Amino acid sequence: MTDLTRLSAARLAELLAAGEASSVEATRAHLDRIAAVDGDVHAYLHVSDEVALATAADVDARRAAGEELHPLAGVPIAVKDVVVTKGTPSTAGSKILEGWIPPYDATLVEKIRAAGLPILGKTNMDEFAMGSSTEHSAYGNTHNPWDLERIPGGSGGGSAAAVAAFEAPLAIGTDTGGSIRQPGAVTGTVGVKPTYGGVSRYGLIAMASSLDQAGPVTRTVLDSALLHELIGGHDPRDSTSIPEPLPPIVAAAREGALGDLSGLRVGVVTQLQGEGYQAGVLARFHESLELLTKAGAEIVEVSCPSFEYALAAYYLIMPSEASSNLAKFDGMRFGLRVEPEEGPVTAERVMAATRGAGFGDEVKRRVILGTYALSAGYYDAYYGSAQKVRTLIQRDFDAAFAAADVLVSPTAPTTAFRFGEKLDDPLAMYLNDVATIPANLAGVPGISVPNGLATSDDGAALPTGFQILAPAKADDRLYRVGAALESALESSWGAPLLARAPELG
Ligand code: GLN
């Protein structure tokens, strides 16, 4: 019998529609896989067996009754724990939200439930999405399925590892500076950050509201397009949601898979390669450029000089917004409440004791940084300057997109590193996102496509990612180019990259 956990979501959906498998069978197969391997991988913080199986049984019954269903109905999915799910714990990887059960669903979760996708559970992440390795989770590390001693990327390491380890065919991630794309790169999965405003943020536990964006984590480009189409679109409950229909992303993915990129101009960003990028990562990147040329694309070099300051601007804007967003965790409204050990129990002292106990070091570091950058006397020098740099970066993108239809770079400068390697050096950790952060600052969409294996500095063969960026609201271009590259790469390898990952369990 077919192993239902090994199929793409699109293929599984076909089997379900044809009556060759049921959603209960598919959901059980994934729950069994989670039971078999998640002890080693730790992708999940919470597994919702009963809820998932109930959804699956309901979809099977509706299908049997001849009801018209969503194309992905019955295909199981995992959701990053920063997205609120009614009746299921949602901790954002933090102790401060331990035990909190949200009374409502995020808009994207409502859409997932309405379409009949069984939610397998909630995935591990860096606390409040702050990190690049998932080592900042308050609930332990997630392990990279390619090598259990290594990081799965972050902050959405749980979603990427779940999909890479065949513990879910689809997952939801969020990307503030790269948290969908960088985990995709280091686990050999596909990850998409849609255009800012393309997917509702209603019900996302906010880190930096002007940068946060939810998106798909999958094993194929087409699967990402199908999931993106399901969760995207205008939401009146999110004031920054784009009041327009999505571009034709599924059609673009199908067209791209045919492999013809004639007339397309691909811009290689000078500033997103070279120093700091591993030799193997760059070698795979240049090989893929050749494949795009063979598919008919024209490669041009574009310069985005302000990208050099993107990381610095991000680490002022993001902590500033985070310090304000996290002010609501005060020991009164949600989750944890800690009273001072001695002395009077005033609101302020409860707040201090709760935040002291409930937040991890990285969160505290960023709250302190953000409050400092926003304080009177420093606001103009730090936050104000960072906002000006943000405008310059947007202008660089405008100029680059006048010369090229899409921009490309390696997704992450290195392959997956070992646990602990960058934990004591926040700057080294932050540098993982040099190539992904500019897109968040400008609001433009990006995809990471599995780009083959490279030899790490310590001699292991590990996944790399190819990043494609498009102008705002032109997400369809990501899928066209991503699917073309994916099909060229897979025919050169003879199989999907993940077929080469070691067996688990
Ligand atoms: N790694 C980046 C950070 O630590 C991005 C995180 C994210 O996209 N959520 O802020």
Write the layout of secondary structure elements.
Layout: H1 9-17, H2 23-41, E1 44-47, H3 49-64, E2 77-80, H4 107-114, E3 119-123, H5 157-164, E4 170-174, H6 181-187, E5 190-193, E6 214-218, H7 221-231, H8 249-256, E7 265-269, H9 279-294, E8 298-302, H10 310-325, H11 347-358, H12 361-374, H13 380-403, E9 406-410, H14 426-430, H15 437-442, E10 446-455, E11 461-469, H16 475-493
Parallel strand pairs: 2-3, 2-4, 7-8, 7-9
Antiparallel strand pairs: 1-3, 4-6, 5-6, 5-10, 9-11, 10-11
Helix pairs in contact: 2-3, 7-8, 8-16, 10-12, 10-13
Bound molecules: glutamine.
Walk me through what this model shows.
The chain has 505 residues and is α/β, with parallel strands linked by helices. The chain has a single domain, classed as Amidase signature (AS) enzymes (Alpha-Beta Complex). 39% of the residues lie in helices and 12% in strands. The protein has 16 helices and eleven strands. Strands 1-3-2-4-6-5-10-11-9-7-8 form an eleven-stranded mixed beta sheet, sandwiched between helices. The chain is globular and about 70 Å long. Glutamine is lined by residues 129-132, 155, 175-179, 207, 318, 433. Glutamine binds at residues 129-132, 155, 175-179, 207, 318, 433.
